[in-house]
Amino acid sequence: MTSTNTSQAFPLNLPEGDAELLLDELQTRLREGRRLIAEVGQILAEIESRGVRDLYGYNSIAVFYEHVARVPRAEAQKVTARALALNSRRARDGTSIDPVAPLTGIAASAGALAEAGIDRIVTVMKRLPDHVTASTRHEAEKGLVELAGVARPRDVTVAGTELLARLDPDGNPKEDPGPKLQRSEFWLRQKRTGRWDLRGNLDPETGARLNALMVPRAYPAPNGEADDRTPAERRGDALSEIVDLAESSPDIPLPRQTSERVTEESPLAEPVGTPANRPKPSQARSQGFPSPHRGDGAARPGNPAERSRNVAHIRPSRWWTRLSRPRSGGATPPQEPLTA
What we know:
By secondary structure, the protein is mainly alpha-helical. It has 13 helices and five strands.
């Protein structure tokens, strides 16, 4: 069975070459569509008055419209906010809530205003201060509605800005909380392949110090040697060299341990036959490891597996670790080294 509700073929049986008639038909369809959209807003305001949770089980009118109209969340929020601003409704306690722009709602119901112009008028009306009288608000909205019916949205924005400058020259003063303290941040994540991803946001001083350490170590191989590394690979080798230098420093703090772990661990006995003049780990690594692509090309001692075991005790328990600089004045003194 075929449907008999077929759309009328273009050009709607209009005489060819009649430009004025085409324009009139287009404007008629636009007014009708905007009028229907305004009626949708009235229905949404009534649903909000009766309680969208009690009627349909949704937490908000925006989520309800998102599912019913099958539109994105951002569009649903704009449509419902416009509907609540143009139409009066009742609160949960039964009190009446007046619309923000009543004249705009009347003009929208007639299909005379586009959505963009309505949003700009509502924005201006919301920003009007409380000391403006009702008659002044009425005249201001009336002028904006008349302008939005014949002008572009940008013209409404300009007129609204001039209106706010005249009615509220001091603006809406807000408390200045002062400059927000931005701390350095650093994220470190280990992937399933064993490699690590890092990302950070450093303050100007720390970033400049790190850059000063990396730049001389990220130069290509000296003495005219062939260096097939990319700039990113050279910076990666430079960072590895900086980590080696920091790890070999005798002042590097030990990893923090809980008191339970310290009390439960028993001291390890020193292996028999160990020389008395055996250097400490910090002294053995005091010279650091040069990059394999720098200087005389000497490779770092030890394979990657051994080096991973050397730093396994400082691996975080979770993949993502957020490190921030200690607060000034509240920094805790470094703990005493724990004896094995």
